[in-house]
Specification:
mainly alpha, single chain, about 100 residues, 7 helices
């Protein structure tokens, strides 16, 4: 019996790619697939627009009052908090990258 190690090689390559990552952009985490799975919106831009806050830069987003953003996330997504939502998005992102190209 012969063991096919191609999958392990691909997994090792994917792990290596992840280990080279220092940070993940909010756009990559809050991708359309993730946003549409946890809200009625098709992407992060629509979600932010629906919040009523004017966001045209990272600074604008950072200036949103925490309590108001938390309330919006609780009301408009399947998550209880912004932190919980970010963590879930991070897990999905890492899983997708880790198992990319594997069956």
């Amino acid at each position: 019996m012969k063991l096919d190690l191609k999958g392990f090689d691909k997994l090792e390559k994917n792990v290596s790619g992840l280990s080279d990552t220092d940070s993940i952009s909010l756009d990559a985490l809050m991708n359309p697939s993730f946003i549409s799975s946890c809200s009625q919106y098709s992407n992060f831009e629509e979600l932010v627009e629906a919040s009523g806050f004017k966001v045209e830069s990272k600074e604008d987003f950072a200036a949103i009052p925490d309590q108001e953003w938390e309330q919006f996330i609780q009301t408009n997504t399947s998550y209880e908090s912004w932190i919980e939502m970010q963590q879930a998005a991070g897990i999905k992102y890492v899983k997708a990258k880790l198992f990319k190209g594997l069956k």
